[in-house]
Amino acid sequence: MIARRTLLLSLVASLAAASALAQLHLQTFATAPLTIVGAGEPHHFTVELAVTPEQMEQGLMYRRALAPDAGMLFDFKEPTVATMWMKNTLIPLDMLFVDEHGRIVNIRERAVPESLAVISSTAPVRVVIELNGGTVARLGIKPGDEVRHPIFGNAS
Question: pLDDT (tens digit, 0 to 9) for every residue of the chain, 156 residues total?
Fold first, then answer.
């Protein structure tokens, strides 16, 4: 019984140390305005920009909350079939897969926190935008809507 308790305490301590170490190396992100335009009124967000491999790997991991008008934009720099997952991501997210012209190709709503399931674009995309889970439904965002951001040369 004592050996099990010691092993359990050792495991808990190791996990806590690994978590602390991971958070010591958290990336910082620049922010930029982004607008999504569909059939209704434009929707404005401030997104963090994940542009380096380290930033893209971390994404929104370890966050416990995200402001309603905030999100993250992952820039793949050129069209690619993007794949994402929710490892170490603690909040549900809506993922918008956006082509090089700024059009939403497909959407994954309410991705499950901490899931290791792969979430993919259905065609090559330039960026993936992550928003709070439920934002897409609340605002009526749909495939075909336009994303305005300097990456696409259409910022307003």
Answer: 555 555 555 555 555 545 544 555 789 999 999 999 998 899 999 999 999 999 999 999 999 999 999 999 999 999 999 999 999 999 999 999 999 999 999 999 999 999 999 999 999 999 999 999 999 999 999 999 999 999 998 876
43 CB neighbour count, 10 Å cutoff: 18
**Collapsing DSSP states into helix, strand and coil, what is residue 24?**
helix
Structure tokens at 131: 């928003």
11 CB-side CA count, 13 A:
6
Cα–Cα distance for residue pair 76/112, rounded to 1 Å: 23
Separation of alpha carbons 69 and 71, rounded Å: 7
Task: Please give the radius of gyration of the chain, using alpha carbons only, rounded to the nearest integer.
Answer: 18
Q: What's the N-to-C CA distance of the chain in angstroms?
A: 66
The burial class, CB within 10 Å (0-12 / 13-18 / 19+), for 146 is: middle
Listed in sequence order, the residues at least 6 apart from 68 whose beta carbon sits closer than 8 Å to its beta carbon are: 132, 135
**Residue 107 phi/psi, 5° resolution?**
-135, 140
Q: What are phi and psi of 110, to 5 degrees?
A: 50, 55
